[in-house]
Amino acid sequence: MNRFEDKVIIITGGGSGLGRAAAKQIASEGAKLVLVDLNMAGLEETKQVILDEFPQVTVELVEANVAKEDDVKNYVQFTKDTFGQIDGFFNNAGVEGKQNLTEDYGIEEFQKVVDINLNGVFYGMKHVLKIMKEQGFGSVVNTASVGGIRGVGNQSGYAASKHGVVGLTKNSGIEYGQFGVSIKAIAPGAIMTAMVEGSLRQIGGDNWEDAGKEFVKANPMLRFGKPEEVGYLVAFLLSHQADFINATVIPIDGGQSYKY
């Protein structure tokens, strides 16, 4: 398939994990990519992974902190100036934060997680949606989480921020559908990325792999998800095949959200 031939797609958090997996899948279908991350080394690695397999693809890199609105305005304007349009936006960058009971959760840590996970998503939507409205087309996929549709113990900042992403998605989808723009969120469960490994290390320390084996017992499919499985979903949701999916959140978690 070449669902993204001549399409311009921005991906934040493109230096690793879900962002990298989505970038590779979308690149395989002909997109022009603008990858955004705070970690330039990670971006360079993602670009090389893509070009090794798809040397014909255009991949631009922008180092940015999504928690800073000026950085967000810069990557959006760079994309517009370089390509003249923005067809799709995977608004994905995020962090988990430290794990603790709510009463012990640090204020600075809470603010950091909200700044990246929620404010960063809002800034991206604010500046990308203006362009998409003017174009009369576009698709946005925000990364929420199962932690955005149910509780997640010891992760107040993460759960609060991801619930906020779900709310922004639904609200903005209602606002912008009339302009030919569809907005949806994905809610990944435990996908085996560096972020999830970090979470397991907080729980199990050097025995984090054993902690992971215990963790997946709560999943109906008894395994972790794979980044590429999320990449396939994101590619579909950014494509014209999903234009009528709007103002909603789609879990990709092996059924974990609905087990209890």
Summarize the structure.
This protein is of the alpha/beta class. It is 47% helix and 15% strand. A seven-stranded parallel beta sheet has the order 3-2-1-4-5-6-7, with helices on both faces.
Note down, in words, how this protein is organized:
The protein is an alpha/beta fold and 260 residues long. The chain folds into two domains: 206 residues, 3-Layer(aba) Sandwich (Rossmann fold); 31 residues, no CATH class. Helices cover 47% and strands 15% of the residues. The protein has a seven-stranded parallel β-sheet, sandwiched between helices. Strand 1, helix 1 and strand 2 form a beta-alpha-beta unit. The chain is globular, with a radius of gyration of 17 Å. It starts with 7 loop residues before the first strand and ends in an 8-residue tail after the last strand. One of its GO terms (molecular function) is oxidoreductase activity. Belongs to the short-chain dehydrogenases/reductases (SDR) family. This is Levodione reductase. InterPro entries: NAD(P)-bd_dom_sf (IPR036291), SDR_fam (IPR002347). Keywords: Oxidoreductase.
